[in-house]
TrEMBL record:
Location(s), subcellular: Cell membrane
Gene3D superfamilies referenced in this protein's UniProt entry, alphabetically: MFS general substrate transporter like domains, Multidrug resistance protein D
Every Major facilitator superfamily (MFS) profile domain range: 24-483
InterPro entries membership: EmrB-like, MFS, MFS_dom, MFS_trans_sf, Sugar_transporter_CS
Keyword hit for Transmembrane helix: yes
Name the record gives this protein: EmrB/QacA subfamily drug resistance transporter
This protein's record includes keyword Transmembrane helix: yes
Annotated Pfam families: MFS_1
CDD domains the record matches: MFS_MMR_MDR_like (cd17321)
Entry superkingdom: Bacteria
Membrane topology: Multi-pass membrane protein
Source organism of this protein record: Streptomyces iranensis
Length: 491
C-alpha cells in the first residue's frame, strides 16, 4: 500500500496494484524504445529522404545533428521539469510532443521542415526519456519487482539501436522513408493510453521547487555545445575551429554550471546526485558502454552492407542474435547475478566480455563470413553490455530523493547521449584516418580499397575494446563492495 501511495496511485488491492505496475512498465518501455530506436531507424531512411526532398550531402548530417543537439542539450532541464510538474503530466506531454513532431517530419515537404521536426523530436525526447526512467524507479520499489522491471527497461534501451536498423530497413523498403517517422505516432498512442490508466499522480509534499533558470541556461548551452563539437569533429576533424571552438565553450559553460550548483539554494542538479560512488559508477558505465556500442552498430552495419553486400533488412536481421543475448544478459543480471555478486563484479565482467567481442571483430577481413567472423563477437558484446546497461541504470537511480529522481534519471540519459556522441566523433574519425593512411600506402585498387575499409573498422574496434577495458577498471574501482540490502517497509 505504501508503494502505491508513493507513486501517487489510489489505494487498491495488491492484485490490482501489481497489474497497474506492469501496465506502467509497458508504457515506459514503449516510450524508451521509441526514443532510442528513432536515432537509427531514421538513419537507415536518410538516403531515401534525401532523394525525395532533394537536399545535399552537407545538409544531410543536420537531420541527425538537429535531433542530437536538442535531445542532449535539454535532458537535464527536462528531468528537472519532470520533478516540478509531476511525472504523469511530464510523461504524457513528452509522448504527445514526440508524436506531433514525428507526424510533422513524416509529412515534411522540404529540408527545413524535416530539420525543424527533428529538433522538436529531440526536445520532446529530452522531457520523455528522463521522465520514463523516473516513473519506473518510483513505481517499482520492491527489490524483486524492481530488478525485473529494470531488466526489461534496460533491454529495450540497449536493443533499441539494433531494432531500429531492422525496423528502418523494413519500413524503407516495404513502404517509404516517411513511415520511419509515422511509426512513432502509433507507438506513442499505445504508450499514452497505457500511461493514462496506470500512472497515478504524485502528491506534492511541500512547496513547488524553484527552477534554477541561470543554471538551466548554462547546462543546456554547455551540453548543446558539447554535442555540436563532437558532431563537427566527425565531419571536419578535431583540429577545425567548428570542432574545438564549441568544445572549448562547452568546457567553460559546464564549469560555470558546476560552480553555480554549489552555491545556489535551488540547484538544477544537486551535487549529491553525482557524489555518490555507486551512482557515479552507474553514469560512467552507461557513458563508456554507449561509446563502444556505437562501434558495433555503425561499423558492423557498414561491414555487412559494404563488404558482405547485405541488404538493409538482412543487416537488421544479422543484429538480432545480439539483441537476444542483450535481453538475456539484462534478465540474468537483474535476477541472478546482481543479487549474488553485486555491481562491483557484474559490471566490470560485462565490460570485459564487450572488450573481448571487440577484439574478435578486429580480425574481420573483406572475405570473412558472418557465422564465423561476426556472430561470435555480437553474441559476446550483447551478453556483456546487457549486464552493464541494466546494472548501471539501477545504480544511477538508486538512493535518490523522490524530489530529484527526474534529474538523476536525466543524468543517466545524458551519459548515454554524450557517450554516443563521443563514439560517433572519435571512432568515426579514427576509422576514416586509418582508411586514408592505408590507401596512401597501398594504392586505390579495388582489393586495396576493400582492405582499407576493414582496416579502418579494425582501428575503431581496437579503440572500442580499449574503452570497455577502461570501463571495467573504472567501475571496479568506483563501485562499493556488495552491501546487505536495506529492509523494505511493510505494505
Amino acid at each position: 500500500m505504501e508503494a502505491a501511495l508513493q507513486s501517487g496511485a489510489p489505494p487498491q488491492s495488491d492484485g490490482s496494484a501489481a497489474a497497474r505496475r506492469w501496465w506502467v512498465l509497458g508504457a515506459v518501455v514503449l516510450a524508451q524504445l521509441m526514443v532510442v530506436l528513432d536515432g537509427t531507424v531514421v538513419n537507415i531512411a536518410l538516403p531515401s529522404a534525401q532523394t525525395d526532398l532533394g537536399f545535399t550531402d552537407g545538409d544531410r548530417q543536420w537531420i541527425v545533428t538537429g535531433y542530437s543537439l536538442a535531445f542532449g542539450g535539454l535532458l537535464l532541464l527536462g528531468g528537472r521539469v519532470s520533478d516540478m510538474i509531476g511525472r504523469k503530466r511530464a510523461f504524457l506531454a513528452g509522448l504527445v510532443g514526440f508524436a506531433a513532431a514525428s507526424a510533422l517530419g513524416g509529412a515534411a515537404d522540404g529540408f527545413g521542415v524535416l530539420v525543424a521536426a527533428r529538433v522538436l523530436q529531440g526536445a520532446a525526447g529530452a522531457l520523455l526519456a528522463p521522465t520514463a526512467l523516473a516513473v519506473l524507479a518510483t513505481t517499482f520499489t520492491a527489490p524483486k519487482e524492481r530488478a525485473r522491471a529494470f531488466g526489461v527497461f534496460s533491454a529495450a534501451a540497449g536493443a533499441g539501436s539494433a531494432i531500429g536498423v531492422l525496423l528502418g530497413g523494413f519500413l524503407t523498403e516495404g513502404l517509404n522513408w516517411r513511415w520511419t517517422l509515422y511509426i512513432n505516432v502509433f507507438i506513442a498512442v499505445v504508450a499514452a493510453a497505457a500511461a493514462t490508466v496506470s500512472i497515478g499522480r504524485t502528491p506534492r509534499r511541500g512547496p513547488r521547487p524553484a527552477l534554477d533558470i541561470p543554471g538551466a541556461v548554462l547546462v543546456s548551452a554547455g551540453l548543446f555545445a558539447l554535442v555540436l563539437g563532437f558532431s563537427e569533429a566527425e565531419t571536419d576533424g578535431w583540429a577545425s575551429p567548428p570542432s574545438w571552438a564549441p568544445l572549448t565553450a562547452s568546457a567553460l559553460l559546464l564549469v560555470a554550471f558546476a560552480a553555480r550548483q554549489r552555491r545556489t539554494a535551488h540547484p538544477l542538479l544537486p551535487p549529491g546526485v553525482l557524489l555518490d560512488r555507486d551512482r557515479a559508477a552507474g553514469y560512467s558505465g552507461i557513458l563508456l558502454a554507449s561509446v563502444g556500442m556505437f562501434g558495433v552498430s555503425l561499423f558492423v552495419n557498414y561491414y555487412l552492407q559494404d563488404s558482405l553486400h547485405y541488404s538493409p533488412i538482412r543487416t537488421g536481421l544479422a543484429f538480432l542474435p545480439m539483441v537476444v543475448l542483450l535481453v538475456i544478459g539484462s534478465q540474468l543480471a537483474t535476477n541472478v547475478f546482481l543479487p549474488r555478486l553485486g555491481h562491483r563484479r557484474v559490471v566490470p565482467t560485462g565490460m570485459a566480455l564487450g572488450a573481448v567481442g571487440m577484439v574478435l571483430l578486429t580480425g574481420l577481413e573483406p572475405d570473412s563470413t558472418y557465422t564465423t567472423g561476426v556472430l561470435p563477437a555480437l553474441l559476446l558484446i550483447g551478453f556483456g553490455i546487457g549486464n552493464v546497461i541494466t546494472s548501471s541504470f539501477q545504480a544511477g537511480t538508486s538512493g535518490v530523493d523522490p524530489g530529484t529522481i527526474g534529474v538523476a534519471s536525466a543524468v543517466v540519459n545524458t551519459s548515454q547521449q554524450i557517450g554516443g556522441s563521443i563514439g560517433t566523433a572519435l571512432l568515426n574519425t579514427l576509422a576514416t584516418a586509418a582508411t586514408g593512411h592505408y590507401l596512401a600506402a597501398h594504392g586505390t585498387s579495388p582489393a586495396a580499397t576493400a582492405q582499407a575499409a576493414t582496416h579502418g573498422y579494425a582501428v575503431a574496434y581496437w579503440w572500442g575494446a580499449g574503452t570497455y577495458t577502461a570501463g571495467a577498471l573504472l567501475t571496479a574501482l568506483l563501485y562499493r563492495h556488495k552491501r546487505r540490502p536495506a529492509p523494505q517497509p511493510s505494505t
